[in-house]
Amino acid sequence: MSRTSSIGDSAELEGNLTLSDRLKVFKNSHFDPNAFVTSKCQTMNEKEIRHLCSYLVDLKKASAEEMRKSVYANYAAFIRTSREISDLEGQLISMRNFLSTQAALVHGLSEHARIDSLWAASEDSIVDDHLSNLDEGELSESEDWLIELLDNFEVLLAERRVEEAMQALEKGEELATESRKKHSFSPTALVTLETAIRNQRQKLAYQLAEAISQPSTRGLELRSAVLALKNLGDAPCAHTLLLNSHHQKLKSSLPSLRSSNSSCGRAYTVALSQIVFSTIAQAASDSLAVYGEEPAYTSELVTWAVRETEAFAFLLKRHVLALSAASGGLRVVAECIHICMGHCSLLEARGLSLAPVLLRLFKPIIEQAVNANLKKIEEISAALVAADDWLLIYPPAGGRPFSSSASLGSAMASQPKLSSSANRFNSMIQDFLEDVGPLESLQLDGSALEGVMRVFNSYVNLLMRALPSSSETEESLEGSGSKIVRIAETESQQLALLANASLLADDLLPYAAMKLLPLPPRMDEQPKRSSERQSRLPEQREWKKKLQRSVDRLRDSFCRQHALDLIFTENGDTHLNAYIYTSLDDNVEEPEWFPSPILQELFMKLTRMASIATDMFIGRERFATVLLMRLTETVILWLSDDQTFWEEIEEGPKPLGPLGLQQLYLDMEFVLLFSSQGRYLSRNLHQVIKNIIARAIDAVAASGVDPYSTLPEDDWFAEVAQIAIKMLTGKANFGNVERDATSPTASVSAKSVSSIVSHGSN
After folding, report:
1. Biological process (GO) annotations (predicted)?
2. Distance set, CA 699 to CA 580, 590, 704 (Å)
3. What's the pLDDT band for 673 if we cut at 50, 70, 90?
4. Where is mean pLDDT largest: 129-133, 213-217, 464-468?
C-alpha cells in the first residue's frame, strides 16, 4: 500500500459520514479487529496512527452518546425488557433444576430400578411410596437421614422458621448434588429427595409471598422475607411484591387521613405529603438493602415512585388545589406546592429526583391560580377606578410602603403618594409577587411578569378612559369599553393619572418584581444564585421598558387631548389658522406686538402644569419635564404638519406678508424662549420651530418681497417674548401703564415698549 493510499484512508476517516455509516464496518459479523488495525496502520506513520486513534476514540464517544440517547428515548421499553430478562433468568434456573431431575430419573431407569412404578406414579406418589418402603425396613444410613430431612422440612415450614428452612433446603441441594456425583443414594431415593426439595421450595415461596403481602409485615421482617424469596430464585417477583406492599400500606392510610384533615387544606397537604414521600423513601431503602443498585430493580423502583407521585398529585389537586386555583387562592396553592417540594427534595439523597415530576404535574394548576389571581386584580382595579377621586394620598394604615428595609436613594426614601385605586393596585401586585416568589423552581417568573404587565396595561387603559377624551379614543382601548370610569375633570386630577402610572412603572412594580430574583441565602450558594440573578436581569430590564411604553401611551393621550383642546373650538374650527397671520397686513396701523392668543394659552397651561408637577412628581422631575416637552411638541408639530395652514400661507388668495411673517416669527421665538427657560426644549422641537420660520420666510420671498429687509433683529424678538412672559406670569413692572395683568390676551402698549416698537419699524 502506497503513501498516497494511506493519506486517502486518512481523508476517508475525516469524511462527513453519519454515525450509522461509520459504524457499519464494526457491525459485520465477520469483523476482525486485528485485520482492521493492520489494514489501517500497515503503511501509516506516527502522525497518521495518532490520527486514527483519535478518530476511534471520538467514534467510541459518539457511539456511547448514541446508546445513551437510545436508552432515554426508549426508557419504558428498556425497563420492560430488563424485567423480562430477569423473569427469563428465573425460568432458566427452574428449567435447569427440572432437567437435572429428569436426568437423574433417566439414570435411575438405566439402573433397572422399578421402571414400571417410576413411570406410572407421579412425583408425590414416588415420594410417598419410597418413604413407605423405607419405613418397612432395609434402611441404610443415608436413607435414614433422608427421612429425617424430609420430616424436618415439614416442621420448619409449619412453624414458619424461614431461615432454618432455607438452610435445610441448601443442605438438601448440596446432598443431592453430591449424590449425583458419588451415587451415594439409589436413583429412587435421589429422585425422591429432589422432588421433595422442589415441592418444599415452592411451598416456602408461597409462604414468603403471603408474608410480604401482609400489612403487618414491616421493617426488618419485610426485608428478610424479600431477601429469602430472592434467594429462592424469584428475585423479580420479590421486588414487585416489596413495592406492592408499600403501596398497600400507603393506600390503607389514606381514608383516615382525608377524614381527619378534610377541613384544612394545608394540614391535609402536610400529612399526605409526609406519608407519601416517607413511604417512597422507605421503599427505596428496602430495595437498596436487598438488591443494591442493580439497574433492572432501580428502574422498577423509579417507575413505581413516579407512579405513586402522580397518584399523590392527583389526590392533592382534587382535594385542595383545584378549588383554590379556580377561586384565585394563589397563596394557598403556593404554600401547598412549596410543602410538597420540600418533602420531595429529601428523596434526592436516596437517588430519587421526583421534583421534575411534581413540576410537570403542578405547573398547570399553579398557572390556573396565577391567571385567576390576575383576573381578580383586574376586576377589583376596575371597580376602584369607578369610585376614585384622583387625589394623591399616602397608602392607608396597614398598606404597603415602597421600602421599609432598603435604601434606594433619597427620592424613594418616603412613601409614595398615589390615588386610592393605584394604592390598592400596588398592594395587590406586591401580594401576588410575594406568593409567586417561593415557587421559583416552577420557573413562573416569566409568566408572572407577563401577567403583571397585562393587568398593568388594563389599568393604564382605565386611566386613559378617565381622561375627558373622545369616544373614538375610548373605543380603541382594548378590554375597557364596558367599564365605568370616573372622569378626571381638572388638570391636577389628570396629572394624578400620570403620577399613578409613572410611579408604578418606574419604581413600585420593578421593586416588587425583585422578589422573583433568586437571592443567595448562604455563602456557599452565592456564586451560583448570583449568576442566576444576573441572567434574569436583562429580562426584567426589558419588562420595565414595556411598562414604560404603556405609560407613554397614557402620556401621549394626555398631550393629544390638551393639544386638541387648544387648537380646536367646540364647533370644530381652529384657533391656530393662517388668517391670524395673513390678516395683519390689511391693517393700516402697525399692530402692537405680542404672541398670538393660542400660544399665550399654551404657555399659561404649561406654567400651571409645571407648578402642579413640582409638588406631584417629587424625585421624578424628568418625567414632568418630558411631559411638558411632549405637550409643546404636539402643538407645534400640528402647526408644522397642517397642510391647510401652509396652503393658505403659500398659495392662498391672500399670501403671507411682512407683518404676518413678523408675528409668526415672534410666536415661534416665544415658544423657544419659554420652553428653554422651563428646561423642556428638545432638539426636535428646536429644529421644527426653525423649519417653520424658514418655510414662512420662503413663502414671503416667493411673493417678491425681501423678508430680511422687514424683519427686525433677533434681539427684538427675544425682548418682546421676554416681556410677554413677564406680563403673563404677573412679574412685569411698567410704571403707570394701565393693564389687566390677569388677561392672557393683554397687549403690550406702545408707550411701555416704545423702544422695542421703534426697533421693529426700522
Report:
1. exocytosis; Golgi to plasma membrane transport; intracellular protein localization
2. 16, 21, 9
3. very high
4. 464-468
- Rounded Cα distance between 436 and 269, Å, is 18
Report DSSP state, residue 518.
P
**pLDDT confidence of residue 590:** 76
Grid cell for residue 84: 423480562
CB-CB neighbours of 38 under 10 Å: 10
SS3 content of the chain, % helix, strand, coil (to 5): 75, 0, 25
Residue 148 CA to chain centroid, in angstroms?
A: 72
CB 328 within 8 A of CB 372: yes
What is the three-class DSSP state of 568?
strand
Q: How far is 604 from 608, CA to CA, in rounded Å?
A: 6
Please choose, from the candidates 50, 2, 62, 1, the residue with its C-alpha nearest in 3D space to the C-alpha of residue 26.
Answer: 62
In degrees, rounded to 5, the angle at the alpha carbon of residue 384 between the alpha carbons of residues 381 and 386 is 115
Q: What angle do CA 129, 134, 136 make, to 5 degrees?
A: 100
Rg (CA), the chain: 47
Cα gap 510→436, rounded to integer Å: 15
- 187-226 per-residue burial string, b: 16 or more CB within 10 A, e: under 16: bbbbbbbbbbbbebbeebbebbbebbeeeebeeeebbbbb
Helix, strand or coil for residue 418? Answer: strand
Secondary structure (3-state) at 656:
coil
Q: Which residues, 6+ apart, have CB-to-CB distance to 121 below 8 Å? A: 129
pLDDT band for position 163 (50/70/90)? low
Cell 377606578: give the residue.
385
Side chain identity at 558, as an amino acid letter? F
Residues with Cβ within 8 Å of 22's Cβ and at least 6 positions away in sequence, in order, are 59, 62
